[in-house]
Description:
Distance between the termini: 31 Å
CATH topology: Rossmann fold
CATH architecture: 3-Layer(aba) Sandwich
Largest sheet: 8 strands, mixed
Helix content: 25-40%
Strand content: 15-25%
Number of domains: 1
CATH superfamily: Vaccinia Virus protein VP39
Amino acid sequence: MADGGVHFDPEVTVANPARVYDYWLGGSSNFAVDRELGDRMIAIDSRVVPMVRENRHFLRRVVTWLCRHGVTQFLDLGSGIPTVGNVHEVATRVTPEAKVAYVDSEPVAVAYSSRILEGNQNATITHADLRDSETVLSAPTVAGLLDFSRPVAVLALSVMQYFDDASDPAAMLARYRKVLVPGSYLAISHISADDPDVDMDGLADATKNATVSAHPRTRAGVTALFGDAQLVPPGLVWVGGWHPEPGSAEPVPGILGGLGRVG
């Protein structure tokens, strides 16, 4: 179920991180300009592809963990281009009645999501600016799907890095946390400025001419985004180290992730 009326110009001339991410994951919802930027970033640090793939696995493990702990409602902020293993696909494997409200401002992401979700009564897509929490939370595709008198998991995976400090991403997330009842959760993943072995500054600089640019943050900076939500074990770690599956390889550094409980 979509918010409708979303169109995009196929003559895309500026790269978008959501489409670059899709390219790295092996998706087809990207354009030549996105692949060009993606390849330039791989040349800067080839670990960027393992990083984003571990981030995708992090999404799967977080959603599975939440479903197994009784959370059946998800608000996915900056949901990006639909690829295999979307939140609603992961959630419904564990909890068939799970409800997922996706939100993104990128027209291509919204258009593709609309097509995928057509006829799905338990998943929606909303085209909105995440900074405008009032619009997001009051949208029929959010307010009409999720029951905020019950626990909701807010997912902000690899999205807050596209807001600079002047945008005050911590305050932005606080506005979403404010409407959550105790027992709700906030999941965050974010590129890190802390690992000297990863050329994160070079990767971030490469995005300066994209539709949005990236802003790495320190561990302390990412922790601050959780506000008063209490991190569940193992806390804020490299995404590959968050409840890894048996036999998993050592986590690739570069992206920090964690899950916080509200109330």
